[in-house]
Amino acid sequence: MRFFIALEIPSENRLQFQAIQAKLHTLIPQARLTDLSKIHLTLAFVGEQPNELKTQLVEILQQAGQNISPFEAVPAYIDGFPSLHHPQVLWVGVKGDIDKILLIRERVKDGLTDLHLPIDERRFVPHISIAKLNSDFYIDRNLEVELEKLMAISFDPIKITSIKLFESIPSGGFHKHNTLAEIKLKSNY
Fold first, then answer.
1. In angstroms, how far is the first alpha carbon of the chain from the final one?
2. Does residue 189 surpass a pLDDT of 60?
């Protein structure tokens, strides 16, 4: 199974992402937009692992969410990987209770390390992928200004109430995501 751990974006927030993507597609028609039903904030990509690992991954999620109450993150800016000017992926960064996202991410990372699973050691930036581009695409200063304008509106906060374990299933050149487990956030104090 191909596992990943993420914070899902509630359906009530997806309309705003749909609006961003529609404007983005007008600016960059060749952008391949992320399916709205699949947008999420990835905490860790575990990759292809034996099915039996699911139980241990659920335990990691339970530990990662301990004593963390539900919180909010707000879409704030557009950036890209590996960079905004030469993006292969465009994403929306968030502000708000970032400390909680970073704490959950560190706990997940520690749990995966304990299982001797490979960990992405790059600096973690909480983000939501919205589009993919060919590697030769270039964003000039004019287009960068237009992308900044997309994010100049007031966004509704995204309510984060759980951590989810997903499986990613290849399907006709795309991937289908199934929720395998959901751990609700709640303060135990």
1. 35
2. no
Question: What is d(CA 56, CA 30) in angstroms, rounded to the nearest whole number?
Answer: 40
pLDDT value of position 25 = 95
Fold of the domain spanning 2-184: Cyclic Phosphodiesterase; Chain: A, (3.90.1140)
* pTM recorded for the entire structure: 0.90
pLDDT tens for residues 125-152? 999 999 999 888 999 999 999 999 988 8
Q: Please report where in the chains the tokens 């968030």 appear, as a residue.
A: 94
